[in-house]
Amino acid sequence: MLQPCFQPFPELRTERLLLRQITMDDVEEIYFLRSDKTVLQFLDKEPAATFQEAGDFIKRITKDLDDNNGIMWGIALQEDPGKLIGSICYWRIQKEHYRAEIGYALQPAWWRKGIMKEAILEVLSYGFSTLQLHSIEARINPANIASAGILESTGFVCEANFKEDFYFRGKFGDTAVYSRLQ
Q1: Which of 26, 55, 121, 181 is the most buried (most CB within 10 A)?
Q2: For 106, phi and psi rounded to 5 degrees?
Q3: Hey, is 21 helix, strand or coil?
Q4: Which pLDDT band holds residue 59 (cuts at 50, 70, 90)?
């Protein structure tokens, strides 16, 4: 069975990015990522209403990290490591199946600059080589063409399309499930 260990926190670096631990100092940026209508347009979740909610979210991800049940990195530029521009994570880790779900969000000002693709490739490398994952999945709204494109460009394939598998704001929505094997 998979035995992830996220202590000490595994900071990751790419050519342009620092993937680092999220702290309470990042509450303003986390609030933005969890409340901005453009960021949330395909995530089908209620926006954060207050900084307190963003702080509570940081506490939850810190607990998951401490319990080795999930990990979320803050995405920052190496030249400005204190300023979060996005996040990327492994969550819903299925330890008995060596499988995890990847999730990500990025401030719109940084879209279409190759930032998320660079972050995904680094997190995939960590997931397969260090965590010893066998497969990684991503679940997206099928209308999110940009996310589908990033996933496909990083080696994911669409495995399934679930019709009306969740309910949000009075409507049933679909889910596209992508995965990548080691």
Answers
A1: 26
A2: -145, 140
A3: strand
A4: very high
Q: Quick one: tokens of 97?
A: 């199946």
C-alpha 152/C-alpha 1 separation (Å) is 28
Look up the pTM and report it: 0.95
Look up residue 25 and give its two tokens.
């100092």
- For tokens 């399309």, what's the residue? 161
- In 3D space, the residue among 149, 147, 173 whose CA is nearest the CA of residue 161 turns out to be 173
Residue 95 has pLDDT above 90, yes or no: yes
pLDDT in tens, 18-36: 999 999 999 999 999 999 9
Contact, 173 vs 44, CB < 8 A? yes
| C-beta atoms surrounding 113 within 10 Å | 12
Nearest-5° Cα angle at 139, 176 to 33: 125
pLDDT for the residue numbered 57: 97
**What is the structure's pLDDT at 44?**
87
The architecture that CATH gives domain 12-131 is 3-Layer(aba) Sandwich (3.40)
Largest CA distance in the chain: 44
Asked if 19 contacts 123 with a C-beta cutoff of 8 angstroms, the reply is yes
Q: Give the position of tokens 């930032």.
A: 115
